[in-house]
Write a structure and sequence with these properties.
Length: 417
């Protein structure tokens, strides 16, 4: 009996062929945008101690409650695959004492896979990629706030080739949040019997999370709930006003959404989400905000941060066919070799050409001439080198289909001519 075929895990993607080229094109565009803002790229472990996310993303968040991929215990530590980057970046800054740098703010960018055990659907995966930045400083000022926000907007617009919609809100300090949570509790408690099981749990663990619920009936009930901005202290209110005024002077369109609370517990201050203006059902293509206490919570100094992450797979879904084509780097081969001599000489020429920076591929030995030529066309090869069984060499120019016989010592020069 044949062995049963093994499939990829649900909610994951195999990137290959054109899709992989789109992915790389998009990565290049996003990292080039971060470069323009003076960011340094960081590469971090894909797993961390569980505690890191419990203490930052938050015990009451859906991510920590039910979405982490916890690894089987090895040694005496509990590890989990990272569900996001912000906590890892803060951990790295503390551990390597980057906060002692004289050059503030730190501007760190990242790109890579994150893991969340969610119910897969279009644009919602269990392994997906995030691009993002974290700006860290003793105190995050208005200039740093605006730059982080602008980079999120500009990088998404650059990828998509059109404007994106920004929703913003302001969450304030943890203290003012506690008062707000009590008010939310009082609002939802009489209605909770008619809400989903997750919301029943959220009422007790963190009523703020009810505002994140994706169930339409629950969202209806949440309309009319108290607004977080009504519970801000004077300083926070002023900061929010300053940010809104500055964005307006910069000519940035934004929408204040008083129900926007984000799914992670570490935010204190400005929060925002980005949406595609064409693909309205896709959900947020990115989100971010300011976090004033995260570093202290995970054992670091009193340092603040602001950042955002974009969902790479959601950006790919939102690409128009034209943008897809533009993002694909020129994949064409320079040369294709058809080898009937089969003694390794083909690899010798390929090696020389590649040393000159050329893209070269070789047909498998089993391929007949006709099939190999078609493959050369499909791969966009400009010229084809044929090594005949009797030792003769032919070079075919694929543009005019002209084929000439060349001497061994002239093979390279005639290909490169
Ligand atoms: P987040 O909103 O959880 O924020 O994720 C950022 C983006 O990742 C979302 O807007 C969405 O585009 C994408 N995303 C989230 N979940 C999925 C999924 N299951 N499948 C596909 N894409 C998804 C954060 O992760 C924060 N760390 C952002 C941040 C950085 N805040 C401050 N600094």
């Amino acid at each position: 009996m044949a062995n049963q075929q093994i499939k990829k895990p649900r909610g994951t993607i195999d990137y290959y062929g054109e899709e992989e080229k789109v992915f790389q094109g998009l990565r290049n565009v996003l990292l080039a945008e971060a470069d323009k803002y003076g960011c340094d790229f960081v590469e971090l472990p894909m797993f961390e101690e569980n505690q890191l996310f419990h203490r930052s993303v938050g015990e009451s968040s859906d991510i920590v409650q039910k979405e982490t991929f916890d690894l089987a215990q090895k040694g005496d530590k509990d590890y989990t695959l990272r569900p996001e980057f912000t906590a890892s970046v803060s951990r790295m800054v503390i551990e390597n004492k980057l906060y002692t740098s004289p050059d503030m703010p730190l501007r760190l960018s990242y790109f890579g896979p994150v893991f969340r055990y969610e119910r897969p659907q279009t644009g919602r995966l269990r392994q997906f990629n995030q691009f993002g930045v974290e700006f860290l400083d003793q105190k995050v000022d208005l200039g740093t706030t605006l730059d982080a926000f602008l980079l999120s907007l500009r990088s998404a617009e650059k990828v998509l080739g059109h404007k994106v919609r920004a929703k913003i809100n302001f969450l304030g300090s943890f203290e003012s949040r506690e008062t707000y949570k009590k008010e939310l509790y009082n609002f939802f408690a009489p209605k909770i019997d008619n809400m989903c099981d997750d919301c029943k749990r959220r009422l007790e663990t963190n009523p703020l999370r009810i505002l994140d619920c994706k169930v339409i009936a629950d969202q209806e009930i949440a309309k009319g709930s108290p607004r977080v901005t009504d519970f801000l202290n004077e300083e926070d209110k002023k900061e929010f006003e300053n940010i809104k005024n500055a964005l307006t002077s910069l000519g940035i369109d934004f929408e204040v959404d008083s129900e926007l609370v984000r799914g992670l517990d570490y935010y204190t201050g400005l929060v925002w989400e980005l949406y595609d203006t064409v693909n309205l059902t896709l959900g947020a293509i990115g989100g971010g905000g300011k976090y004033a206490s995260l570093m202290a919570q995970i054992g670091g100094p009193d340092f603040e941060g602001i950042g955002f992450s974009l969902g790479v797979e959601r950006l790919i879904i939102a690409l128009t066919p034209e943008r897809r084509t533009e993002l694909i780097a020129d994949p064409s081969l320079d040369y294709f070799i058809i080898d009937f001599k089969r003694d390794g000489k083909a690899n010798y020429f390929a090696d020389k050409l590649r040393a000159d920076g050329k893209k070269v591929s070789i047909a498998s030995y089993g391929r007949a001439m006709g099939g190999a030529m078609k493959m050369a066309d499909r791969k966009g090869a400009k010229k084809v080198l044929i090594l005949e069984e009797d030792g003769r060499y032919q070079v075919k120019n694929m543009a005019d289909r002209n084929q000439v016989e060349v001497k061994e010592e002239d093979v390279i020069s005639s290909l490169e001519a």
